[in-house]
Write a sequence for this structure.
């Protein structure tokens, strides 16, 4: 499998996992604010990195205050936007450099490949935090392991 195809599959998993988390938070009998804040951050960061790659201005704060409905809309839109971007991504573009300033205002340069890898791992990291928060609240978190999605044929 070529790297662009591998990344497309990783982002399909990411969108699925975000939808699973949203479904769990939506069904929660005892919702707390922190899991929703973390999901909103995941979605905002995913958009921010796409905007950096495309050399577009940042459209959302890094820690937005989203409702469940806004998260649902963001998940759908991000799946579409990343799908469009990744469907046109070539091997050569993976090594292109992207220069940006982080949330502290520090200048950095990263390759597209490193950014795409970061986006998927960053999201998984925060979904783990959400799972911990949900479990601490006495509820069952979403089962978002990649291998589960792959075994079930949920990522193509």
């Amino acid at each position: 499998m070529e790297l662009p195809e591998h990344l497309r599959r990783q982002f399909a998993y990411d969108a699925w996992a975000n939808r699973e988390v949203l479904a769990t938070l939506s069904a929660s009998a005892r919702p707390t604010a922190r899991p929703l804040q973390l999901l909103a951050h995941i979605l905002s960061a995913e958009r921010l990195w796409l905007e950096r790659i495309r050399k577009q201005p940042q459209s959302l704060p890094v820690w937005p205050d989203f409702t469940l409905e806004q998260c649902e809309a963001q998940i759908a839109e991000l799946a579409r936007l990343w799908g469009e971007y990744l469907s046109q991504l070539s091997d050569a573009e993976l090594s292109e450099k992207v220069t940006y300033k982080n949330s502290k205002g520090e200048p950095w340069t990263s390759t597209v490949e490193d950014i795409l890898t970061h986006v998927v791992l960053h999201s998984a990291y925060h979904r783990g935090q959400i799972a911990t928060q949900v479990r601490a609240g006495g509820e069952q978190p979403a089962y978002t392991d990649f291998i589960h999605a792959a075994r079930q044929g949920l990522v193509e």
Remarks:
- The chain has one domain: 3-151.
